[in-house]
Write a structure and sequence with these properties.
CATH architecture of the largest domain: 3-Layer(aba) Sandwich
CATH superfamily of the largest domain: P-loop containing nucleotide triphosphate hydrolases
Structural class: alpha/beta
Number of helices: 11
Order of helices and strands: HEEEHEHEHHHEHEEEHEEEHEHH
Helix content: 25-40%
Strand content: 25-35%
CATH topology of the largest domain: Rossmann fold
CATH class of the largest domain: Alpha Beta
Shape: elongated
Number of domains: 2
Number of strands: 13
Length: 348
């Protein structure tokens, strides 16, 4: 196996088979998964192209981990078709498995081995040459800030340190596709920034990443975002498009010096919706904020109002997610969906 390895420690087959940007790496067609006759993932359709980061975002119990386990081949779908790197996960060839890096949600390393030994062991499974393996182990441990703890047994590391160690193990062999289940759970905010910087670097190098997270604001870090609630894919789009989808357009927030009735703006061209937040504050949804903001200010003045401030606002992704979930409605019983998900999705 080692005769296929390149100087950078990855396999020749891996490098030769990396898909150019735009090729489909992951596809799911009408995929559902049930446990004990309870559906926890329902009719999911999505594709992931090469060189992108797909963020799979949703609350605990939404079905994220079950979806990931179908992509890795640990679970077969009850119905529908899943393909990863052109193959069904339940029948991956060895070469295809070697092109995938997987970081599970729950701790899955050897507690009696040190941090360094765990990463070295994983690297050896992928046939990295000894000299390159040592260098690569050092690189990934430094990346996740565990180099100083390399001689500490994994079982004695804190929960956050264990998550970082699992990320190092997933990265060590330079996979084409990285599947990361809650990679930033339990990690402090500063290190979380470092982890995302590395994920962006990998994306820019042509790698494809699937990242699940409960941190809704991390949607900003992704190229495409899949929002999952109650086992259903309720939205799939780039972050900016999700925002516009949630609001229906651009949002302008206006504060007036005195009480003002926002209904005075209903006839203004380009105004799509008006929400009176407070007596002196309203949010106006328009088709294009840059051109409509002056028009809104002028219209308020013409109606006898006095504008204290006016600005375009960007909804947080917590607000975007809440709006999209509410709009999707609760067609299914959410309690049944959560109860049916036998793969717990609590953060490590």
């Amino acid at each position: 196996m080692t005769d296929e390895r390149q100087a950078d420690g990855t396999s020749g087959a891996d490098n030769a088979a990396d898909q150019p940007s735009g090729d489909v790496i992951v596809s799911m067609g009408n995929v559902s998964r049930a446990f004990d006759n309870r559906t926890v993932v329902r009719d999911v359709n999505l594709t992931v192209t090469a060189g992108t980061i797909l963020g799979v975002i949703g609350p605990s119990g939404a079905g994220k981990t079950t979806t990931i386990r179908m992509l890795t081949g640990a679970l077969a779908p009850t119905s529908g078709e899943v393909k990863v790197l052109g193959q069904r996960p339940t029948s991956f060839s060895r070469r295809t498995r070697e092109r995938i890096g997987y970081m599970p949600q729950l701790f899955a390393l050897y507690p009696d081995l040190t941090a360094g030994e765990n990463v070295d062991f994983v690297a050896s499974l992928f046939g990295l040459l000894l000299w390159r393996r040592r260098r690569r182990v050092q690189q990934v441990l430094k990346l996740v800030q565990l180099w100083d703890a390399r001689k500490t047994r994994a079982g004695r590391l804190s929960g956050g340190m264990q998550r970082r160690l699992e990320l190092a193990c997933a990265l060590v062999h330079g996979p084409t596709l990285l599947i990361l289940d809650e990679p930033t759970a339990g990690i402090d905010p500063l290190l979380r920034v470092t982890v995302w910087e590395e994920l962006h670097r990998l994306r820019d190098a042509g790698k494809t990443l699937l990242v699940t997270t409960q941190y809704v604001h991390e949607a900003e870090e992704c190229d495409q975002v899949a929002l999952i609630a109650h086992g259903r894919l309720i939205a799939l789009a780039p972050p900016a498009e999700l925002r516009r989808s949630a609001t229906g357009g651009d949002v302008i927030e206006v504060e007036t010096t005195d009480m003002f009735d926002g209904s005075n703006l209903e006839s203004l061209p380009g105004v799509l919706a008006i929400r009176q937040v407070e007596a002196r504050r309203l949010r106006v949804t328009v088709d294009h904020a840059a051109t409509k903001l002056p028009a809104v200010v002028d219209a308020i003045g013409a109606a006898g109002g006095d504008v204290a401030s006016a600005r375009e606002v960007r909804l947080t992704f917590d607000e975007v997610f809440a709006e999209l979930v509410a709009r999707a409605g609760e067609e299914d019983d959410p309690a049944a969906d959560v109860a049916a998900d036998t793969e717990p999705e609590t953060a490590a």
